[in-house]
Amino acid sequence: MSETPHRPLRPSQSETRKSWLSNLHLSLRFRRGFPLLLGAFGFLLLGVYQNCSESIPMAKKVSASSELPGLSGPAFPFELKVDHVAYMTCIGLPQNFDRGTFFTFKVGAYNSNSGVTLSSQWVSEANQKRMSEIEAINSLEAEQLSQGATVQFAVRNKANLVYDYVHMTDGNNLTDSVPIVWGPLSNYSLAQSLVRLNVLAGEHLNRWQGVPFEAAVHFNSLSASNEAEVRTHANDRTGYLSLTFSSLKTSLAEAARSPAEFVDTSSDSSLKGVFGSGLGLSFQAPEGSIGSSASRVMSSVSEFNLLSKPAKATGHGWICPTANQFKIVPRALWQAAGCADPASDLSPRSPQAAAALIAAENILGPNGSQWFIDTNNHCVIQNYDQAGTCYPNSGLIQWNQALACGGNTGVQCAHWLSICTGT
Question: Is 162 helix (H, G, I), strand (E, B) or coil?
């Protein structure tokens, strides 16, 4: 039986590189009579373009697949990227609030270049070993680095990213443990999708069996006195909104996978963190607010690779437009809040409002489902008030952010939703 020609996996790189590799795959498709010649050319091409991303200097190789002499141990195979992060200030809700309607922090991958992909270094190693598609899938299933790796989302403190995730208590109200996003990524069907995406297009996987790559944490049932503390934990000086992978060798389900599980990292600060990425947030008062208003919207996002300690900035850009700041309004109070009638035409009237609608629908769902989204007046209006309310205490709400609220004013400040997007 003749050997099936090797089809190189494609690292996610620039469009130019994708074009080169696309032509290579087309050549492989139509020239199966020359597998050895093309295999040699593919090996040379991938050597020239090999990505310089970090790999782990394994003391002992853990790959179950065959290895060529002289190759270093396997790189960590997965990379994560999100392109939306949202912050909702609603707090003081009862324990039975609707978690599909309300959240505190939410992240998601909604664009084609975000989600889960195979790391460039792992793909390069797979190509050097001339893995077939089935061999690459089997390797992801068998290697210790990838075994059982489930994507986690949590607010983690910088001091100890492995174990120290934020799970605040307020009386009997305990916030979320670490939510599971997807996984395990080493399961055959998910591994197969990741391998095929990298072979065919070098793309990210951001939807699996109809489920988008997104996750949220909920501190909404804490008392209002905890609101500022919640922001402190996600501030870029204290902690990160962290996308990590479940530990392989630690019994605690919320623990994050780290290089220390596989190698001695005591003398290498570049490997003293965890696998994954983190978002550090900054906050400010809503646009047009007076100085006494709380810092209830995000003002900036910084993204970090959490592998080293301290974490290194990835260089990925983020923007937090004022058009993406929305008052959170109960349906019965839309008029008092200065919003449009939810039953009216809510079509955006400017390019900025149109872009804000796309971001808001990615986070909240289609306009008119759980929320009516009025981007022209910076409002998101609850469709069903029985889902809970951001304003559990009776009393007046100050919808005009240019006027004083909170403190000794006797008037509640409005709650806000803010959304930042990757560039």
Answer: coil
| Model confidence, pTM | 0.81
Query: Do the Cβ atoms of 307 and 272 come closer than 8 Å?
Result: no
* Interatomic CA distance for residues 297 and 361, integer angstroms: 18
pLDDT in tens, 87-121: 999 988 887 888 889 999 999 999 988 999 999 88
Cα–Cα distance, 178 to 167 (Å, whole number): 9
Q: Is 354 helix (H, G, I), strand (E, B) or coil?
A: helix
The β-bridge partners of 277 are 243, 305
Over the stretch 389-407, which tens digit does the pLDDT of each residue have?
Answer: 888 877 899 999 888 888 8
Domain ranges of the chain: 1-52, 76-422
Q: Which residue has the tokens 């209006």?
A: 381
Asked if residues 267 and 299 have their Cβ atoms less than 8 Å apart, the reply is no
Contact predicate 328/318, CB 8 Å: no
Q: Name the pairing type of β-strands 297-305 and 312-313.
A: antiparallel
Match 């091409």 to its residue by tokens: 45
Length of the chain, in residues:
423
Contact criterion met (CB below 8 Å) for 42 and 127: yes
